[in-house]
Every structure is written in structure tokens, then in C-alpha cells.
Specification:
Blueprint: H1 10-22, H2 26-59, H3 66-69, E1 87-93, H4 101-120, H5 125-128, E2 132-136, H6 146-158, E3 167-175, H7 177-182, E4 191-196, E5 216-220, H8 221-234, H9 239-246, E6 257-259, E7 263-265
Parallel strand pairs: 1-2, 1-3
Antiparallel strand pairs: 3-4, 4-5, 6-7
Helix pairs in contact: 4-8
Length: 272
Amino acid sequence: MAANKMNWPFEDQMASIDATVAILTPNEDAIRRAASLQGNSIAKQESEALRVALQKAADNNGKPCAWVEKLIDRSIPLNAISMQPSWGFVVLRDAKTEFSNEDWEVFLQKLETTFFEGVSWLVGGEQINQTRKLFWQDQFVDENDHEGLHRAFQDVVRLSPGLQKQIIQNTFLLITPEVVASFESSSITPWIWAFDTTFDPSAPIQADSVTKFDGRLKVASTSVFTWFYAARKEEIYGMNQFWECAQKQPDQVWKVATELGLYHDPLVSLTK
């Protein structure tokens, strides 16, 4: 039996290749060239089809998601921002975050940067980024006083009757020292507390309540004004289901990325 060609001296291997090419019939050579061209053609077609599909999904003729479209009044010129409806969340501030004005402003700038970044990934984000708002409670609150938190939320809603349509009614946000700290570390996903206003804080506490949903959820700041707002506004899932998803993450933060300006990943938040 002849020795394996791979063990031949280099000169012998090259001579064998030259001999094989030399004895190819015209038909064999044509078949090889045709196969090569066909392979290249198929690869190009697949690549072009993928490019077209991605482009179509990315711009969808420039139309935003349905929930984004609801936030834009097309009867008003898009450049008349002050006339466009506002939308967003009520946000409360825990008393333990009473820092110096300078430190508080630094935190607010970081918070705003992440909010802006998240919305800017959406088709239509340029428009709704200019109309999103946080509606603040004037007084400090105690994060451990759940009843007080809910009263403070209702106070803001009651005093803003003209904004009730776009203010999320089933959720409010809370700034605590833990939230502020998440914006100061590059190794932690910046997040904010979100509270479910439909959660009953007086319900019997489970013996293992440490591992149970207690009406609040850590939400990545880049997801707050995107898929979190959309899912809560449409009331598609209960926040306890978001909480269950978040517990599977190392930081236990609920976060959803935007894909191609129109979609979200992972698919855990929105189905319509």
C-alpha cells in the first residue's frame, strides 16, 4: 500500500498535485469551475437576501413600533415639541439620598444619559426622547414605608390630571442609595427601582419572603423608557413575571435590549 501522501516530502506532494491537474479532462475542469461559481453565486444571493431582510426590518419604511407611535401626535408638527404630549413615570426619592446639590446633579446627569441612550436606539426615538419625563414628588419618602410610597405616588397623579393619560398608572419609580451606587460602578448595570402599584403590601408575608416578589423590581435604566414602559403601559405581563426573569440574572436586574430599532431581545416583555 502506498504511503500516505501527507507524509511525502514537500517536493513529491507538489509534483503529485501538478500531475493531477495536468490529467484533468476538459469536462472535469468545467465541472469544477461551475461548482465553484455556483457556490460563490449562492453565497452572494444569501448574503444579499440577509442584507435586504435586515435593512427592511431596521427601517420598516421608517415607521416606529406601535407603542412608540401612540406617543407621537401626528396632527401636530414634529418640530412643535412643546405641543406634543408628555409621557413617562412618577418617580420618588428616598430620604437617604439627600446628598449635596452637586452630587445629586451628577447622579441626575448619569440617569438622564442612560435614559436618553435607551430611547435613542428605537425607531422614532428622536421624537419621543424629547417628550419623555419624570414626574417628581416634592417630598422625600421612606423606601421601607410601602403604604407611604403608594400615597406619595397617588399625590403626584392627583395633582397632574392633565398628564394622567401618559403617566404609567400601574408603576412608579424610586431612587434609593442603592440605585445611586449602581451608577457609580462600571461593573454593575445601572438600574432603578420600579414598584407595582397593584401589589398589595398588606398581604400575608411568606416565611421565605426573601426569595419572593415583594412588589418591586430592579430595572436597567436603559430599559426603563423603552420595553419596560411599553410592557407596563400595555399591561401584557405582571411585574412578578419580570421579577422571576430578573432572578435568573447575576445582578437580578430586568433588562431588555433593542434590536434593529423595532424589536427586543430577549423576548420576555412584549408580544404585540
